[in-house]
């Protein structure tokens, strides 16, 4: 019974040595050295090959090494294979740091002050107190909730939106399609942390931006597929949105002539919000493997019909 990793070489060797030290009974293999494919029961990857279940006839569980599972073609996988997302506390920490950096930068108008610096303009602008800045989080899973709690001490007015209703300390929560517009109307800064599914693809579009207060700001920490890029450019150019911070794109890396590289009101970072680190993720993965071996429910198993 083997666990096969398909990850980059340096991370692969870290995973392998962690298993050798702490769980030597598990036969860990690193792609492309797959050995006898019929022995592979567990598969862990960020980008999987397409023919997983035909190549590995005894596959039981796919562990995403990422928080998102949209890179897997769930429709193609037989229902008996469980798909598990990565609940690494290191991912949550990375997302918290990025969200706080981006929210505080936008709140304190850092993009504007950097534009002024480049133009040699020394001019201050009215300072909005955090208690009058409304920050909305779309997607209230473990990452969205962690971000709201990390933002609380600053005193922002926090809003949250999810498919179904949630109760979160210090956050006014909205749910479902009917409450989307009322939620958006209260987002001076909107953070997208949704999973990418058929329902959420393209959710950051012209209608969404129009429903936000004029001059609002956007942070996309979800997936590139959430955003209609042309609509964001139009919203920035018209002033409907004043600034955006974008960490994820539909096509990564973007082409050299992609307009996001040079738009003055947009900060672009190369999908660095969070990274799974074997150091913190190992315990999570091993815990799930042991649960599976004992016939218990694993943590982070996705509901296949929901796609997350
Ligand atoms: C990274 O984008 C992840 O889903 O963990």
From TrEMBL:
The keyword NADP does not apply. InterPro entries: D-isomer_DH_NAD-bd, NAD(P)-bd_dom_sf. Residues 102-273 form the D-isomer specific 2-hydroxyacid dehydrogenase NAD-binding domain. Keywords: NAD, Oxidoreductase, Pyruvate. Pfam families: 2-Hacid_dh_C (PF02826). One of its GO terms (molecular function) is NAD binding. Signal peptide: none annotated. CDD domains: GDH_like_2. It comes from the Bacteria. The keyword Oxidoreductase applies. This is Glyoxylate/hydroxypyruvate reductase A. It comes from Pseudomonas abietaniphila. The lineage of its organism: Bacteria, Pseudomonadati, Pseudomonadota, Gammaproteobacteria, Pseudomonadales.
């Amino acid at each position: 019974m083997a666990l096969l990793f398909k990850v980059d070489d340096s991370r692969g060797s870290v995973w392998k040595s962690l298993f050798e030290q702490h769980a030597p009974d598990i036969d860990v293999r690193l792609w492309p050295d797959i050995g006898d494919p019929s022995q592979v029961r567990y598969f862990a990857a960020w980008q999987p090959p397409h023919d997983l279940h035909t190549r590995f006839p005894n596959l039981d569980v796919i562990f995403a090494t990422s928080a998102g599972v949209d890179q897997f073609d769930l429709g193609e996988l037989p229902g008996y294979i469980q798909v598990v997302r990565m609940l690494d506390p290191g991912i949550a920490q990375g997302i918290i740091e990025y969200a706080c950096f981006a929210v505080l930068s936008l709140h304190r108008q850092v993009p504007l002050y950097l534009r002024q610096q480049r133009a040699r303009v020394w001019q201050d602008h009215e300072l909005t107190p955090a208690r009058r800045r409304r920050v909305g989080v779309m997607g209230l899973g473990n990452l969205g909730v962690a971000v709201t709690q990390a933002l609380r001490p600053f005193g922002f007015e926090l809003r949250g939106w999810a498919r179904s209703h949630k109760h979160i300390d210090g956050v006014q929560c909205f749910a479902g399609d009917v409450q989307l517009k009322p939620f958006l109307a209260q987002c001076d800064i909107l953070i997208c942390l949704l999973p990418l599914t058929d329902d959420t693809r393209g959710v950051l579009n012209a209608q969404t931006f129009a429903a936000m207060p004029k001059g609002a700001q956007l942070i996309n920490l979800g997936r590139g597929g959430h955003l209609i890029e042309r609509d964001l450019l139009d919203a920035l150019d018209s002033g409907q949105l004043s600034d955006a911070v974008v960490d994820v794109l539909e096509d990564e890396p973007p082409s050299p002539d992609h307009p996001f590289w040079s738009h003055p009101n947009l900060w672009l970072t190369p999908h660095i919000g969070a990274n799974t680190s074997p150091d913190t993720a190992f315990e999570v993965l091993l815990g799930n493997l042991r649960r599976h071996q004992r016939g218990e429910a694993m943590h982070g198993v996705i509901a296949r019909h929901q796609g997350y």
